[in-house]
Fold these 2 entries.
Entry 1:
Amino acid sequence: MNLSITNLLHRHEEDQETQKNGVMLVTFAEPKHVVSEQFRTVRTNIEFAGAALDNCQVIMFTSSAMSEGKSTVSANVAVTWAQAGKRVLLIDADLRRPTVHASFRKLNVEGVTTVLTAKRQAEEVVEATFVDNLSVITSGPIPPNPSELLNSKRMVQLLEWARKNFDIIVLDAPPVLAVSDVQVLVPKTDGVVVVSIMGKTLKSDLKRTVEVLHLAKAKILGSVERIKNPRGDRGYGYGYGYGNEK
């Protein structure tokens, strides 16, 4: 029991740190680092997996539970697409624990929620970043009804606008087992990537996650496995692999 409480506290502290300081953008800071190369491999494999689909433009990254690295993976893979010359839009669809604004040093006064509540148009809240070819739409103010907003016609219209103006749209979505937000987003996306941590993500949780996504008729492109470095180096202490979900 004590171990479980400790793990929950550690996960909460890690989640709080990411919300405050954002994720480590190793692909931007050190593009020649081995981890950056692994992110480029993830990007390439997603492209291969998506080649079998009619369209693979809107890609959602999620996980089973919080603090499993889906924001780190989505942001860094988005950077690698931008570095490859694609016009990329990263949307923070996690309206409960947003991180994109912190990672890219934005104020988050306006964003997804102000578009979905008809206070702003998409073109008014999209922001360029310090990464060439990469734009972001932050979450905006945290609402009391995230699932209802994400399931609205305005979310469909936001993504339709994004499809017309960008080559790749990356959605940083909430964890699957925590809330129902992902299920309502699935029909609006072309493919889903699931992020997990080796030795930390429970196999039962990962199985349930895949089952939930299949029930929502998601096209699962594969999974990214995050491997913690025992030295504990932040950002650089992870390896990333890619594999198709069975």
Entry 2:
Amino acid sequence: MVKVSVIVPLYNSAKYVDELAVNLNKQNYHSAQFILIDDGSIDGTEMLLREHPLVKADKRFEIYSIANGGVSGARNYGLIQAKGKYIIFLDGDDYFDEKLISSYVEAIESKDTDIDFFKITLVDEMKNAPLPDKFQLNYGSAVKDTVVGQEELLSYLCDGTIKGYPVAYISKLELWQNVSFPEKYRVNEDLSALFQLISETTHLKARIHDETHYDYIMHEDSAVHSMLLC
């Protein structure tokens, strides 16, 4: 039985395929489904994925190709394919350690929560230095071992304590039954989806953690990079 589905949208990501395959293959959690969605790439991303030796040898990998429609459409397609009890979203051009999936799953199962949030480290494009503290995701006093509910999570969203980064949380698949990423938006689509998910789950249980297993790489041409510099 698949315990967790990992959804990774990709667009023109040929130069990241090898590192992504390595990072996923080395995950020490085996009851996982790796859903890689090629979003209409024109640089051979799909072919490189399908022919990569680690991908071919690891049964956790599933490769899909769809017409280009943006990251929201790719994530929504991944949700349709998901068979796990839990969902983790990753980006194909970032770095994450081998304990990410196991740590996320162990955390959400330890108190039977619906969604658990983790810190991520924002690093420069060369991956050799974290960005200044003012740009980092800092949960501050929100980090606690106790379970919090819908009202408290909404307040954290409104005051900016919790951001929309999909890579910063693990959630139960059932929460996404009537929730999707808005495909008409090109910015803040992830925040919109998270707000909808929390708003529509009255008896939501969540925890916020201070540990991090994920380096979010800030590329100069990314939308998030542009917003941070505003």
